[in-house]
Write a structure and sequence with these properties.
The chain is about 70% helix and about 5% strand. It is mainly alpha-helical.
Length: about 130
């Protein structure tokens, strides 16, 4: 089934849930491009600078994305993969300074949204075309 045909079978509520997850992931992982080096960072990288509290906050937001995927009917094995991504991000983030650099490159929220988009066979560009 072509990717665009999959998106046509999604309800407006489902498309809204996916858009919300994509927006949150973008805010958490790629909201701002750092000048000169060109790396994109988000709120997760900045929150990670706050010992313990930042990593917990980032993980709770990641759990929200996983819950949205569950509500959308993403299969359990993909939800498990999403949980592993979040766990790796949380564990890596606990190491002072090195964990903060790890957060900049691992981007678990974007990975997890990628799993959702892949499951439904749509890209972010296609998602934005549907109203």
């Amino acid at each position: 089934m072509p990717a665009s045909a999959s998106a046509k079978h999604l309800t407006s509520i489902e498309l809204g849930r996916i858009r919300r997850a994509v927006g949150i992931a973008s805010m958490m992982d790629t909201a701002v491009r750092l000048p000169v080096i060109g790396v994109r960072i988000g709120a997760d990288s900045i929150l990670g600078l706050i010992p313990a509290v930042g990593d917990i906050a980032g993980s709770l937001i990641g759990l929200f994305i996983i819950d949205e995927a569950r509500r959308l009917g993403v299969p359990t094995h993909k939800l498990a993969r999403m949980a592993v991504n979040l766990g790796i991000d949380a564990a890596g983030g606990t190491v002072p300074l090195i964990g903060d650099l790890f957060d900049v490159y691992f981007k678990s929220h974007r990975r997890n949204v990628g799993i959702i988009l892949d499951h439904f066979g749509i890209s972010e560009d296609e998602l934005n075309r549907y109203t």
